Amino acid sequence: MEEKIKILIVEDEMIIAANISLQLTHLGYEVIGIIPRAEEVLPLIRQQQPDILLLDINLKGDLDGIDLAHLIQHEYKIPVIFLTANSDETHFNRAKAVNPYAFISKPFKKLDLQRAIELTILRIEEENTKKENGVSEENFVLSDAIFVRSHDKMVKVNIQDILYIEAERNYCKIHCKDKEHLLVATLKDLEEKLLVNNLMRIHRSFIVNLFHIDEIANSHVVIAKKAIPISADLKKQLLQHIQKI
Predict the structure, then answer these.
(1) 89-96 and 65-75 helices cross at what angle (nearest 10)?
(2) Residue 181 in contact with residue 154, Cβ under 8 Å?
(3) Rounded to whole angstroms, how far apart are CA atoms 152 and 132?
(4) What is the mean pLDDT of each run of 10 residues along the chain (245 residues)?
């Protein structure tokens, strides 16, 4: 029987915390506790270390969630997902300094929570694989394919099957004809590694497969009925590139 992922919730609004706990339980995770104050977290972690820490930034008391994350990282390497109702630049920059695995903005939907947890687990698996194998992610990028982690195995995705690649914070979503794959990498990293003639970045959030473009409009291209934005300064490069191939 596969061991459940253990999650600790640190949230001082108990109605929200109870709702999160219920949703996580329904998704098959184990909630090892709900703690409202930062000062109570480290003693519990020393007794039972969670796999993931779901941490509200705006905790009441002397320490907020960001202060607590700094303290925890001095002793433990526990992935942190921040919950926040305050998305201003100051809080965001402070939070970035502790390298959280994800942000969830309040109010959020069950799907937001589910995706944040799944992507955190995916990133943990990627990091563990690198440690075990002593290899970097470059070893999984070939000239005609890329290997993407799916649970406990690596799945080969042929470049010709990729429609487009979409950036979403610290990961990328690879869209193929019949399936989507999540990859823990930035779009910039993929752009540098996937040196393939028919793949081109046309927007800060999108790389497209030129062979699958159905339409080119003033502000977007269409691939498989999906309108993908194109930056004005990259449209000219796209047209020149298409003429070459």
Answers:
(1) 10
(2) no
(3) 13
(4) 85 93 94 93 92 92 88 86 80 81 88 91 78 50 75 79 86 87 80 80 93 93 95 86 65
169 phi-psi bin (left φ>0, alpha ψ -120 to 50, beta other) = left
**DSSP letter string over 37-85?**
SGGGHHHHHHHS--SEEEEESS-SSSS-HHHHHHHHHHH----EEEEES
Handedness of CA 186, 187, 192, 197 (dihedral sign): positive
* C-alpha triplet 104, 109, 113: angle, nearest 5°: 50
Task: Supply the pTM of this predicted model.
Answer: 0.56
Angle of CA points 226, 229, 233, to nearest 5°: 150
CA atoms within 13 A on the CB side of 9: 23
CA distance 58 to 68: 11
Task: Give me 172's structure tokens.
Answer: 């990328």
Report pLDDT digits (tens) over 223-235: 999 999 999 888 8
